[in-house]
Amino acid sequence: MIQFQFERASTVKASVNAMVNNGNARFIAGGTNLVDLMKRNVMTPTKLVDINAVPLKDIQQKNGVISIGALALNSQVADNKIIQEKYPLLSKALNAGASAQIRNMATVGGNIMQRTRCSYFYDTTLPCNKRQPGSGCGALDGLNRMHAIFGTSKDCIAVHPSDMCVALVALDATVVVAGPKGERRIPFEEFHRLPGSQPAKDNTLQNNEMIISVEIPDNEFNKNAHYFKVRDRASYAFALISVAAALNMDGKVIKEARLAMGGVAHKPWRLKEAEKSLVGKQATEEVFKQAAEIAMQGAKAYKYNAFKLKLGPNVIVEALKNAAGLV
Amino acid sequence: MNKNKTTGKSEEEENHESRRDFLKTTSILTAIAVSPVAVSKAAEYNLGEKINHALETTPVNLTINGIKKQLAVEPRSTLLDVLREQLNLTGTKKGCDYGQCGACTVHVNGQRVLSCLSLAIMQDGKQVTTIEGLSKGDELHPMQQAFIKHDGFQCGYCTPGQIMSAVACINEGHAENKEDIKEFMSGNICRCGAYPNIVKAIQEVKNGGQKI
Ligand SMILES: Cc1cc2nc3c(=O)[nH]c(=O)nc-3n(C[C@H](O)[C@H](O)[C@H](O)COP(=O)(O)OP(=O)(O)OC[C@H]3O[C@@H](n4cnc5c(N)ncnc54)[C@H](O)[C@@H]3O)c2cc1C
Ligand code: FES
Ligand code: FES
């Protein structure tokens, strides 16, 4: 780890100001991703701004919207009564991620901002366009079992590793951020980006902007929601593929559907066409299989991740069956 | 057992301690190897154990196992390294140092966290409990007793982390049944595979209902 200057900020304004004129400064919240990457010299900020004293931990409900502070802990959100009753999908996705200890440290803002777990990104002796633009993508022709099947480019095939974000994109969340010029609101689907020719950029947040909260609109998905995650061991591992499925049902008929996938793209992957195909249909395995087929259109595998083309539709069907209470 | 006449310690104890000193020295040397020039100068002047003071340090107040401590920490130091290297609390183990094993689990303000991913400088004013702070004098904590009774370990390396995690698991309300325990203890890896006995130990303490 290189040496850095350390500063504490206790207001949003002071946090944002501490970033001005220093492109190499970073916020630190739970530290569970940043400290790991700094130890490996994958990230080398020269200044850390500790934002833990900023009062952004609250989970509040107002005008049919729930607002979750950026510093709310992953465990606090997962265990929150309102979240469990109204947004069980989010609670399930959070509990599927990391471990109890890490969730006690990890914040909502930090979870959204976490970097990829691509092993070429992590190893500073190997090429990686995300870590070192222009050095090449080691995963493209390398060990790419964990890598993306949607939205890849010739410069990067990494995936966004978060579970929480898969639920948030499915639930039409909005990220509220503050910068030197005030606040702006970013629809969750537009927050993270595809790699294109600039894989170093994970998302659309500017360096001097800070996430202050995440808002989720009211919905009718609380009775039929499921997060299904497939990984190399039963717990405490990143997703090979995960699916967030939420249905609003009238008896056996699907009135509204939300579907998103994790472990398949550079961003949490919303499946809007598949959602549309479900509306107005009876909840049956056959209907779910058709939706899964639509969802997988355009998927492209690499040498070691072709299994994801087969696993993907199976995970979608399983998640939908669980959400609909068919299992 | 052979005891050294001057120190009164067994050979095994002495070997153990000198191994520990050796490890400490080597990790300081590693720190020097990767540090900027000013730090290497400190080594040149043979500052040894005082190396931390040669670096830029910041005062941090911590209450560790009920005792208030004022420390000078280098901003890069993790809570784990401060516990082990500065405070000689070597009960907390370093397994991976990257958040992947749970051996370094401690309680900060009553919550279980990973000390290897916690910067010490960010813990100012907080209460830290380590495995050394769990027992009351010679009386073991109920979770420690249960681990012994149920053979919840083999080599013991993961055990301090397991026990700290287990106590928190019950206090959080995540030990209602076997499945819950397995899921919420998954952040503690045991290479010896003592998992079934760890679950039994936790269930016993949970069912005993005592305040822990
Ligand atoms: C062993 C291990 C296993 C894991 N397994 C999983 C898993 O299965 N699923 C999963 O989803 N996650 C997993 N994680 C990742 C974990 O969820 C993230 O590390 C965590 O959510 C990051 O949050 P943090 O508060 O600790 O962020 P930090 O490490 O403090 O920060 C991460 C990044 O976010 C930035 N940041 C933090 N807060 C803000 C803010 N408010 N505004 C703008 N920028 C901000 C920081 O500058 C930094 O760049 C795992 C982590 C580990 C170590
Ligand atoms: S040493 Fe901290 S998790 Fe392994
Ligand atoms: S007892 Fe050996 S690692 Fe758990």
Tell me the name of the CATH homologous superfamily of the largest domain in chain B: Beta-grasp domain
CATH topology of the largest domain in chain B: Ubiquitin-like (UB roll)
Shape descriptor of chain A: globular
Q: Biggest sheet of chain A, open or closed, and with what strands and sense?
A: 5 strands, antiparallel
Mean pLDDT of chain A: 97
CATH fold assignment of the domain at 225-324 in chain A: Enolase-like, domain 1
The level of helicity of chain B is: 40-55%
Q: Main β-sheet of chain B: number of strands, strand sense, barrel status?
A: 5 strands, mixed
How would you characterize this protein structure?
- The complex is a heterodimer of chains A (327) and B (212).
- Chain A has helices at 12-19, 34-39, 74-79, 81-86, 88-95, 100-103, 108-113, 119-122, 164-170, 188-191, 272-278, 285-295, 307-324; strands spanning 5-8, 25-28, 47-50, 59-62, 65-69, 174-179, 182-187, 210-217, 224-230, 241-250, 253-262, 269-270.
- In chain A, α5 (88-95) runs antiparallel to α9, α11 packs antiparallel against α12 and α12 packs across α13 (307-324).
- Chain A has 327 residues and is α+β, with helices and mostly antiparallel strands.
- In chain A, strands 4-5-8-6-7 form a 5-stranded antiparallel sheet.
- Residues 1-7 and 11-45 of chain B have low confidence and may be disordered.
- Chain B has 3 domains: 11-54, no CATH class; 58-132, Ubiquitin-like (UB roll) (Roll); 142-208, DNA polymerase, domain 1.
- Chain B is built from 8 helices and 5 strands.
- With 212 residues, chain B is α+β, with helices and mostly antiparallel strands.
- Chain B has helices at residues 11-33, 37-44, 51-54, 79-86, 142-149, 159-171, 178-184, 195-208, and strands spanning 58-64, 67-73, 105-108, 111-114, 126-129.
- The complex binds flavin-adenine dinucleotide and FE2/S2 (inorganic) cluster (2 copies).
- Flavin-adenine dinucleotide is lined by residues 26-34, 36, 70, 74, 97-98, 102, 105-107, 109-111, 113-114, 161-164, 210-211, 238 of chain A.
- The site of one FE2/S2 (inorganic) cluster (FES) has 11 residues of chain B, from loops.
